Amino acid sequence: MPSITHDQSMDSISDSIVQISNGEIKESVIKELEPFKDALKAQGFDPNELLNQETSDLIKIWKDIECFKDAKLNNDTELNDASDLADLIKGQIAGFSEQKLLEMCTFSKISYGNVDRKLEKGKYKTKRQLAEEGYQIIKFYDNELIEDKYCLDTDYKLEQHDVGYALTGSNSYNRDAGYIFIKGEEVTIAYHGTRDLNDVKEDLRVSLAKLSFLPEDHRVHSGFYSLFKRSWSSVHKILQGHANDRGLKIEDLKINVTGHSMGGALASIAALCLNKTENAEDVHVATFGSPRVFYNGAAKVYNDCLGSKTIRVACQSDLVPCLPHGNAGMHYKHVGKSLKLETGKSLEYLEPHYHKIDTYYNLIQEVQQENFKSDNNPSKYRHIAYICGLFYHAVLSYVDVNDKEFFKKVEEENKEIKLSEIPIEYAPNVEEKLKKGEEEVAKLTNEKTQLEERLNSIQQSLGEKTKELDDEKGKLTQEQQKTNQLNDQVDKLTAEFKGTKDQFAEKRAELDEQTKKVTKLNSTIKELKETNAELERKKSNLTNQLEKLKSTNAKLEKNAGNLNNQLTEEKKMLEEVKAQFEQENCHLANQVKEVEKKFQQTEAQLAKSKQNLAEETSKVTQLSKESDKTKAQLEEKKNEIEDLNDKVTQLTAQNTQLEEQLNSTRQGLTDKVTQLKNENNDLKTRLQKSENKSRGLEKNLQKQSESKNEELNEKFLKARTYSKRQGNYASTSLVLFGAFSVGASLTMIHLAICISLAVAALTFLAVGCYCAYKANTALNNVEIENGSYRIAA
After folding, report:
1. How many Cβ atoms are within 10 Å of 600's Cβ, its own excluded?
2. CB neighbours of 571 closer than 8 A, spacing ≥ 6?
3. Is there a contact between 255 and 284 (Cβ–Cβ < 8 Å)?
4. Which helix (H) or strand (E) is 191 found in, with range?
5. pLDDT per residue over 555-614, tens digit each?
6. Longest dimension (CA), the chain
7. Average pLDDT, the chain
8. For residues 141 and 230, what is the distance between their CA atoms, to the nearest angstrom?
9. HSE of 645 in the Cβ direction (CA atoms, 13 Å)?
């Protein structure tokens, strides 16, 4: 089989094997795979399945094998074992295809606590969609209680529960650490990245900790290990509960571990822990923008266990994967196989959006299949990371952590746990939300009715009290009349009526008390009326929100239907034209073959006739010569000569007839070929018209998108300007902080200069933060709908 270089295109490869059968290609592929057959089977890859593929796929496999051989000859560390060859043939990295990697990215996005509405804007799968696909979604928590000394509002902390906090009592709560997604025997653990100051504090912890399940002097970042350890009991409980429900062990499950940024670091530690403490071999890891975690020998231990099952995705313009700094010496090291994402832009220092999970999701979608492979291209920030690494290692310290009993204790506590005993969070349905809203409206209506009934009862009691006051007033009037009648006898009977005056004073005091009660009742009635008005406003707001949701859903469904119908019609027309064109070509090829066959037969007959004529002519010539020699026998042979001349005449007539038939056949063939060419030109014209029509539609769509993009250019330009300013100010502050640290470490004589540098650095950092705020707020009113941009009103 001819050798093929890697620079050859698929067309040139196809041309070079025109004369080679499919069987020969299969034999060559089997021969090339023979040295790796046992190793591929050990990786769970069956080479015999390749033989059922088409010729073009077999050629691609052959080319991949040649590429793998060349890499081994060149000592390429990215392609050095059977798992790398299997990934190369399948178009995967560490067992992850592009689609599987996007799924892991979606899980990492959800781990931040994003609601379905926010996920839909980014075109991710929502928790509701994952639940419909059969996933169980379980949130796991950090076991460290956070005390809030300044917030006594329980309602506020219940709101925090919806975005990742669990209220545990008084002023303390647990933070969530991520989500676990369960489907069958496949379990995916997703850790969230840095989200608040508590996470930043652990990110900046520069000490090293030793893992109890690693050999001596093999250490990891102590901040990341602390976060992992605090959530491990919750993760182990869910895994053990799921395994117990299925009658399995944790090591029998297929486990995926993923995370973005700090979450990627925790995912790497969790995967190694599962491998070492639970003997789990079927563990696969995907990290996005993860910093380095393992120090020196710990990285080698990880790669020996899980290096071929780990993919590390990093954007070349992202600073975070460069930290903490690492090189060939005593420094941090990355693990697994790397996929470097190109941004397609010039060097832009300290652009924060390159580290966002949304950026990684979009860049993975844009990767072409031929570029979906592992590489070791350096980051743009390696020089800055090196400078930071010098300061980092100058203050590096070591922490001895005794965790030998911790993992055994967690295993014992969760030994008999069941998954049904753990609260599971399913994705909410829109219908359930609407139903809950209606139930809340009904509840508020009932409360309003109860308050109205209570108000009526209060009014009735107030009327009864008013009647009692009127009766008391009547009695008082009677007493006054008696007093007027006995006015003349007042002086004489003062001593006798002294008790009556005291009674009158008591009655007056009672009357004042009743008046105060009436005042309090009036204020209560006023408060009830205000509460009733507020309930009416809440009811109207909920009704408006329901109407907006219904109208928005109707518009989205209508727009999606119209676009799908247009695309379907255009695709059908193009497919019909292509099918007709291919059918006509096949028919034309068959007719040409038949005509060529007839032409060859006619030529063969003509050649045979010419041969016979030549033979007879040679005979006549020979006889003429013999006649000159044998004049004596001429008279005897005249009859034979005349017979031969008659035969020559007949053969000449036949030759003429055959030539006429050949000319007529040629003319008919020429006319038929001309007719077929005309039909072919007609088909090409129709195909060109359909292509022009599709181009017109594409231009219209492009014009629409360009008109929408022009509206956003100013806002994106403004955001980019502020982002660049933020990068400049942050770079200046970084340099000033570096000068401050160097000056402080050299001598204390220039303390005033160092303090000035620190103040200047903080000033530049504050201006950079302001620029970041302006860059973010510049795009606050930009929304994405149906794959296009729209400026919100």
Report:
1. 9
2. none
3. yes
4. strand 186-191
5. 777 777 777 777 777 677 767 766 776 776 777 677 667 767 766 776 677 677 667 767
6. 213
7. 72
8. 8
9. 7
Q: Are residues 197 and 214 in the same domain?
A: yes
Which of these, 599, 595, 577, lies nearest to 674 by C-alpha position?
595
- The neighbour count for residue 203, using CB atoms within 10 Å, is 19
Q: Is the distance from CB of 180 to CB of 258 less than 8 angstroms?
A: no
* One domain for residues 444 and 544: yes
Clarify whether residues 414 and 448 are in a common domain.
no
Q: What is the DSSP letter of 125?
A: P
**Of 295, 229, 300, 288, nearest to 264 (Cα)?**
288
Sign (positive/negative) of CA torsion 388, 391, 395, 398?
positive
Q: Is 298 in a helix, a strand, or coil? A: helix
Sign of the C-alpha dihedral computed for residues 167, 172, 173 and 174 taken in this order: negative
On whether the CB atoms of residues 546 and 434 are closer than 8 A, the answer is: yes
Start-to-end C-alpha separation, the chain: 66
Q: What is the pLDDT of residue 109?
A: 93
Same domain, 238 and 361: yes
Give the C-alpha separation, 378 to 314, whole Å.
10
The alpha-helical segments, DSSP class H, found in 246-293 are 262-277
- 458 with 415, same domain: the answer is no
Give me the residue label for tokens 């959530």: 231
Copy the structure tokens of residue 211: 């893992």
Give the integer Cα–Cα distance in Å for 157 and 141.
16
How far apart (Å, rounded) are the C-alpha atoms in residues 509 and 347? 88
Domain closes at, from 583, 605, 627: 605
Span 503-522, pLDDT tens digits: 667 767 776 777 777 677 77
> Which residue in 429, 346, 423 sits closest to 179, CA to CA?
423
State which residues form the domain around 293.
98-112+182-423
Report which secondary-structure segment, H or E, holds 593: helix 494-629
Q: Give the end of a domain, one of 605, 624, 652.
A: 605
Instruction: Please report, to the nearest 10 degrees, the dihedral formed by the alpha carbons of residues 140, 143, 146, 151 taken in order.
Output: 50
- Angstrom distances, CA of residue 620 to CA of 624, 635, 637, 638, 762: 6, 16, 12, 13, 120
Strand-pair category, 254-260 with 294-295: unpaired
Q: What is the CATH number of the domain that holds 313?
A: 3.40.50.1820
What is the enclosing helix (H) or strand (E) of 108? helix 98-110
- Encode 481-506: b = buried (16+ Cβ within 10 Å), e = exposed: eeeeeeeeeeeeeeeebeeeeeeeee
Q: Are 106 and 114 in contact (CB under 8 A)?
A: no
Instruction: Single out the residue of 601, 581, 775, 537 nearest to residue 680, CA to CA.
Output: 581
Cβ 283 vs Cβ 268: under 8 Å: no
Q: Between 75 and 755, where is the model more confident? A: 755
Q: Which amino acid is at 256?
A: N
Q: What is the DSSP string of 466-523?
A: HHHHHHHHHHHHHHHHHHHHTSTTTTTTHHHHHHHHHHHHHHHHHHHHHHHHHHHHHH
Distance in angstroms (rounded) separating the CA atoms of residues 406 and 409: 5
Q: How far is CA 332 from CA 292, 311, 345, 374, in A?
A: 6, 18, 28, 20
Q: Is the pTM of this model over 0.85?
A: no
Q: In terms of DSSP H, where are the helices of 381-429? A: 382-394, 404-413
Query: What span, in angstroms and rounded, lies between the C-alpha atoms of 282 and 252?
Result: 8
Residues 6+ apart with CB under 8 A from 627: 634, 637, 641
Q: If you search the block for the tokens 């009830």, which residue do you land on?
A: 528
Contact 259, 286 (CB under 8 A): no
Phi, psi of 375 (to 5 degrees): -150, 170
Q: Look at residue 633 and tell me if it is in a domain.
A: no
Sequence-distant (≥ 6) Cβ neighbours of residue 51 within 8 angstroms: 26, 29, 30
How many domains does the chain contain in total? 3
